[in-house]
Amino acid sequence: MLIFYLSALETEEERMKLAELYHEYEPLMFRYAMKLMGSAEQSQDAVHDAFLAVIRHKEKYLSLSDRNFRSLIVIIVKSKCLDLIKREKKTIPVAIEDMTFEEPIERSGEEIFLKNEKAEKLHQAVKRLDETSRIILEMKYVLGMSYKEIAAETNLTTKQIDNNMMKAKAKTRKYLEESGEANDEQ
Amino acid sequence: MSNSRMSEIEFESLLRHAVIENFYEELDSLPPREELAKMYTASPEHEKRMRKLFARENRKEISKKIQKIGRRAAAAALILVILLFSALMFNPEVRATVVETIKSWSQEFVRFTSPYAESEGTSKEPTFIPAGFWEEHRSELDFITTVFYMNADGEHIMFESTAADGSVAVDGTDVEHDVIIEEGIEFHVFVSTDELADSFIVWEVGGWIYRLYSTIPVEYLQIMALSLG
Description:
The structure holds 2 protein chains of 2 kinds. By secondary structure, chain A is mainly alpha-helical. Chain A contains 9 helices and no strands. The radius of gyration of chain A is 19 Å and the shape is globular. By secondary structure, chain B is of the alpha+beta class. Chain B folds into 2 domains: 2-41; 45-226, no CATH class. Chain B contains 5 helices and 9 strands. In chain B, the strands form 2 sheets. In chain B, strands 2-3-4-9-8-7-6 form a 7-stranded antiparallel beta sheet, with helices on both faces. A two-stranded antiparallel ribbon of chain B has the order 1-5.
């Protein structure tokens, strides 16, 4: 009986933690989801699916720091949005591969002068990437996920992830070259 | 060649930095939670769906753990039954020694046993289940049947029936014990003093020892106990 009580308590703590996290990050998740989905109903579906993904890996995710969990939940909800779009075979004026989340920010000349130019150009190049590529790059570099983990969250194969990464790197490198900042030394 | 390789490494490093910087720049530029909450509000239906999601996951975890614990408890009870049966077959002094050993196993536990009764027919189950509960899991061994009920809020009720030539031990700590006689049956009611811990009822009918335990009000368990059919 005591063992059962302790087990139940542990699960109740987890349940409360999940509810707290949901309450804390719900508006943030909606903000990102609405940008991609455009409809409250579909945004709610994406938020629900994102939390389902968190629950599936709760042993790992619930022990993250606040900052890391915040990063995680944003990337996951964006990934679920794209999932839903693909699943519903939504008719969109632009192909998913060409969708961008935001327009590149034009920085002041002074800001550019203060930053490393190459890094700045690459920063702009990343903003121009399609949403799928950005999410995959964020999962890899921000969350440190392996290709296998990324594939599990995005419903893509590891081969597709690899191809996407290669394409994204090629695009950003091409942007650097066109900006005259390429550094191909032969 | 080495220059090209360095360039590749430098590019990878810069790309990693750009992706991370880009991500946090966007995230950190967002308004605080309170302002976002004014802009984006979920519907009541969505909030209900999320609560059910958390409750469902809670139930799955409890159910998994119950199955594990239930198997262990059933195995332990089975061993107990076999020990007592074996003791009956031999010298009464040996049997007394075995009984003493089991009693001294844990002073906190209250043991119910009726070694001379024979079980009549098959065990019965409650015909009354509190509103909102459903049967989540069932385990049936030769001597023990366990049924686990749950509701949408993650609350549980556990029902167990054990053959009377066995023995049932319950945790007697942090509970208030009372004996109620209804319809000629003696119900041992253990009301937990901790609202997070289970209360339980133990009784014997027709050679079967029954147990109900839950965190819901013990009055519901009493109604369930009386509804055996």
